[in-house]
Amino acid sequence: MSNERTFIAIKPDGVQRGLIGPIISRFEAKGFQLVAMKLVQPGKAHLEKHYADLATKPFFAGLVQYMCSGPICAMVWEGKEVVKTGRVLLGATNPLASAPGTIRGDFAIDVGRNVCHGSDSVESAKKEIALWFKPEELMSYTPAARSWIYE
Ligand code: DAT
Ligand code: MG
User: All domains of the chain, ordered by start, with CATH?
Assistant: First the structure.
């Protein structure tokens, strides 16, 4: 199915460091399709909900504080296996362990400043998209290059 969707976010450090363009470029160049995008600073309660699975971790409070520290570029990308492949484009959670050529591998050093977020399963992508976007903010369109990307 080429209509799988994932939630990708450029975190406050990525926005402040001018990495919105380079990060979007990698998803575009791969052939994935942008279906929603906005710059938002949604606040503590929203970020606690987004990272609810990590609530018991010792780094949770610091993580939420960092995510609240500036605007986030929230996006939805669509394409065949985009959830799994999106995370490959991002690289390992700890940037020091991320392969060169990945976003975190090329642009980050500390795990607490790893510039981007990507959903880890189709199920969590659905939850995250519903948390960050209203249905009418998600675009449905056929990209002109579609038949040059998919056989
Ligand atoms: P990912 O963002 O790769 O899905 P995750 O969901 O396990 O990783 O964790 C969410 C974020 O929390 C991660 O991007 C950075 C932060 N984080 C994870 N593990 C951490 C740790 N051991 N120390 C500090 N921050 C951590
Ligand atoms: Mg995660």
Answer: 5-142 (3.30.70.141)
